[in-house]
Amino acid sequence: MIKILIPLFAIVAMAPVAMAEVEIKRWNPEGLGQPIGYSQVVTIEGTGKMVLLGGKAGLTADDYIPETLAEQSKLTWKNVDLALKAAGAKREDVVEIEIFIVDLANIDPNPAYQDVRDFFPAGHKPVSMVIGVSALAIPELKMEVNVRAIVAND
């Protein structure tokens, strides 16, 4: 057995230090498109808590899935909101979203796009991407989202 002796000053040096606040900057640089529903660039400076929401979709806690993309989209963003709150985050903390839509080439995605625009407050649009897929893990689902948020330490 090996014993390691750590001097007292080293233990004090390893103690947690006060965390700086996180600053989230969102913008659309000159020379790039100026989209309405999302930001081209989001930077995160400082420290805080990262919140990752994977596979949020339009189904209820008892596994009911509405039929239409429009209904599923509304429920998806309601579920995202619930998950963010449970993690101590809010809509303004979201920095990135990935939206997966089944059969994107053959459906009207505008209801889902509008729900994204409505979900995030002005000045807090995350970077985002929409990906067309052939199917999701639950066959009845028409969309699913991944969400990343950064919460500043208080």
Task: Please describe what this structure looks like.
There is one protein chain. The chain is an alpha+beta fold. It has one domain: 60s Ribosomal Protein L30, Chain: A (2-Layer Sandwich). The chain has 3 helices and 6 strands, in the order αβββαβαββ. The strands form 2 sheets. Strands 3-6-4-5 form a 4-stranded mixed sheet. α3 links the parallel β4 and β5. α2 packs parallel to α3. The longest helix has 18 residues. The termini are far apart. The N terminus is likely disordered.
Short description:
This protein has 154 residues and is an alpha+beta fold. Helices cover 23% and strands 30% of the residues. Strand 4, helix 3 and strand 5 (127-133) form a beta-alpha-beta unit.
The percent range for helix content is 10-25%
| Alpha carbon gyration radius | 20 Å
Uncertain runs are 1-19
Distance between the termini: 42 Å
Number of helices: 3
Q: What gross morphology would you assign?
A: globular
Q: Domains counted in the coordinates: how many?
A: 1
- The proportion of strand residues reads 25-35%
> Could you give the count of β-strands?
6
CATH architecture field: 2-Layer Sandwich
Largest sheet: 4 strands, mixed
Structural class: alpha+beta
**At the third CATH level, what is the topology name?**
60s Ribosomal Protein L30, Chain: A
Order of helices and strands: HEEEHEHEE
Name the CATH superfamily classification.
RutC-like
The CATH class designation is: Alpha Beta
| Mean pLDDT across residues | 84
Strand order of the largest sheet: 3-6-4-5
